[in-house]
Amino acid sequence: xxxxxxxxxxxxxxxxxxxxxxxxxxxxxxxxxxxxxxxxxxxxxxxxxxxxxxxxxxxxxxxxxxxxxxxxxxxxxxxxxxxxxxxxxxxxxxxxxxxxxxxxxxxxxxxxxxxxxxxxxxxxxxxxxxxxxxxxxxxxxxxxx
Length: 145
Hints:
This protein has helices at about 1-30, 45-50, and strands at about 60-65, 65-70, 70-80, 85-90, 95, 95-100, 105-110, 115, 120, 135-140. The chain is α+β, with helices and mostly antiparallel strands. The protein has 2 domains: about 1-50; about 55-140, Sandwich (Immunoglobulin-like), CATH 2.60.40.10. The strands form 3 sheets. Strands 1-3-7-6 form a 4-stranded antiparallel sheet, with no helix packed on it. A 3-stranded mixed sheet has the order 2-10-8, with no helix packed on it. The chain has a 3-stranded antiparallel sheet with strand order 5-4-9, with no helix packed on it.
């Protein structure tokens, strides 16, 4: 009796594990076919974003967090896409793109930029959601602040 119980539990566990893994694989496969490459785990996307052929990008980190006009800044995150879009600083000032990759964008801080949240607009037209990771401080070159 004890052996049958253990065998039943083992089979149920393996069935559960198999269905969980295959479900994640199917979601990952569905996202892989989209126009945006997502290296963020599929479960991090909301249901609406997962169905969107152009999901919003996500800025995880701006490095350095503060720099003067003309300095190079790196944006790290997810779903930027393979084709270059736009990077907009507060005041609606577009940055010059130095390089654009799926998870990393290098830009030059433009003249007229002010401190605030940076916006990434992917080539397919989606904007990132604003968050702490997109905040950037523009420093005055003369004062170093």
